């Protein structure tokens, strides 16, 4: 299955910058599976299937990612260096 950028955007619910300046490392214990602290962005999805599909798009586009469960938000999330449309909007 080939996903599009529009598919990716529809699979994600929230997109934020993810770097040491945003204070994310202070909240590291909320992420069950850990994340890649070198990634620039974090995205949240409604469920695990959406996270897998969104990350499938990232893999298709050549981007690394790290998936985790966010206990604070009670959602799956992932980090990556992929820039979503909200950054360029």
Secondary structure elements and pairings:
Elements: H1 5-11, E1 12-17, E2 41-45, H2 48-60, E3 65-70, E4 75-80, H3 85-88
Antiparallel strand pairs: 1-2, 2-4, 3-4
Helix pairs in contact: 1-2
Q: Please tell me how large the radius of gyration is.
A: 12 Å
Indicate the proportion of strand residues.
25-35%
Mean pLDDT: 91
Number of DSSP strands?
Answer: 4
**Main sheet makeup:** 4 strands, antiparallel
How much helix, percentage-wise, in residues? 25-40%
- Please state the overall shape, judged from the principal axes of the Cα atoms: globular
Distance between the termini: 27 Å
Order of strands across the widest beta sheet? 1-2-4-3
* Low-pLDDT segments, ≥5 res: none
Order of helices and strands: HEEHEEH
Structural class: alpha+beta
Number of domains: 1
Number of helical segments with 4 or more residues: 3
Describe the protein.
A four-stranded antiparallel beta sheet has the order 1-2-4-3. The model has no long low-confidence stretch (mean pLDDT 91). Helix 1 runs antiparallel to helix 2. The protein has one domain (5-22, 30-83). A hairpin with a 4-residue loop joins strand 3 (65-70) and strand 4. By secondary structure, it is of the alpha+beta class. The protein has helices spanning 5-11, 48-60, 85-88, and strands spanning 12-17, 41-45, 65-70, 75-80. The chain is built from three helices and four strands, in the order αββαββα.
